[in-house]
Amino acid sequence: MVRRTALYSCNACGQLLAFIREADKAAAQVISKLFISTPGPAIDTAQADRIAKLIIDHQVNQVVIDCSITGERYRQLISKKLNVPLASVTRHPTPDTLPGGVTHAIVFGDGQDDRQGRVAKAFEQRGVKVRMVRAGVG
Q: The whole model's pTM is what?
């Protein structure tokens, strides 16, 4: 519930009038499981910011990062930027498979890496909503 109050004074008598407007806040759309893949072994701050901008009006329950992304600091970065508990950010263990139960995927690609294209296509065939993000393009 969003409540907004505005105070005005009457032109005739000078008394203060309070106008109150109440509105229901729209519920955020939920992303049950988000998969994030980059062509390299890292996620930088700019990429994390771009992910946050892509899902700004959504609530993320769980994040799975690609197996090529190693390092605890990348999990912490994603957890902080997407406002997801660290325990809900996991790394997919094997490079030969894709995680199950994914509802949305964000795949960073530079156009040269064939693997990123295959990952995006495989998720699309599973009915996952995929966003392919090219380098330098929002």
A: 0.77
